[in-house]
Amino acid sequence: MKNPAPPRCCIRFGTFEFNPQAAELRKQGLKVKLWPQAAKILWLLLEHPGKVRTREELQRRLWPNNVFVDFERSLNKTIHALREALGDSAVNPRYIETLFGEGYRFIPIPQERRTFPVKSRNARKIDSLAVLPFVNESADPELEFLNRSVVERVIDDVSRVPGLRVLAYGTVQHYRDGDLVPTRVGQDLLVRAVAAGEIFQRSDNLLLHLELIDVGDGTQLWGAQFDGSFAVALSCPEKLANNICDQLRPILASAASSAKEERSEHVA
After folding, report:
1. Which residues in the chain show pLDDT less than 70?
2. Closest C-alpha to 136, from 50, 209, 227
3. 132: burial class by Cβ within 10 Å (0-12, 13-18, 19+)?
4. Whole-number Cα distances in Å, 181 to 72, 98, 109, 168
């Protein structure tokens, strides 16, 4: 096998800087915790941006034949950990894209940090929304119960925003596969924005990543990560839902108001 080229001192993408020799990831100069195996995967993906690294290739490179490990479970957990470190999402990826049935690749697009004035972000005109069930790769019934409870409560809450049409849970409940593209789902459902995320349990912790996506151009209007005790979230799902709504509601209220003003101008 041909040896890979010696790694550069550091690789910059977006707000991140990765040193493959030290297996060190930094965001805006601050060190980000990264599992050793996740660092190896990140380097393999960064070696050739845009090139698909198959699961079989990752297995050979990270877990040699003489190492006994549950490869499928270990790789899934490692990819989750890498995405968590990057603040990335399997639903609407900026860095790591999953090609189902093939493997993974680093998205070869300019990753410069984009900044938007608060007024510009909030001025998006949104008069309709679909809150999709969170992507959940586990078959755990408790996690699925929590998933549904939180999504239903978020829908109930944001549906009270004046001027905003929010689809019912029964309308969106089947849109839960990890390979669905949020922008296409939004176009199918005839809404201006989609709230989509992924939820998973790691030991006793619950991790949730959620994004608000403009269906028109795929722009992320808002994004946040939530983590905490799984047992606490399961016993009181409304607390997690309220936390989400406290951040999401002001953005939706402003965007719905902008949409209402636009309609009034057209009528006039």
Report:
1. 1-9, 28, 64-70, 109-124, 177-179, 258-268
2. 209
3. buried
4. 24, 12, 18, 19
Max Cα-Cα span within the chain: 74
And the tokens for 268? 């006039």
The pair of structure tokens assigned to 186 is 């939004």
Q: Which pLDDT does position 246 carry in this prediction? A: 93
d(CA 176, CA 131) in angstroms, rounded, equals 11
Q: Provide the pLDDT for residue 182.
A: 79
Residue among 265, 266, 262, 244 nearest 163 (CA) = 262
Nearest by Cα to 221 from 97, 130, 126: 126
- Residue 252 · residue 126 · CB < 8 Å: yes
63: part of which helix (H) or strand (E)? Answer: none
Residues 6+ apart with CB under 8 A from 235: none
Q: Which residue in 220, 217, 227 sits closest to 195, CA to CA? A: 220
Query: How far is 244 from 210, CA to CA, in rounded Å?
Result: 9
**CB 163, CB 192: distance < 8 Å:** no
- Of 160, 165, 124, the C-alpha closest to 259 is 124
Distances (CA, A) of 266 to 126, 170, 228, 254, 260: 16, 33, 46, 19, 10
Paired strand residues for 15: none
| CB of 106 closer than 8 Å to CB of 49 | yes
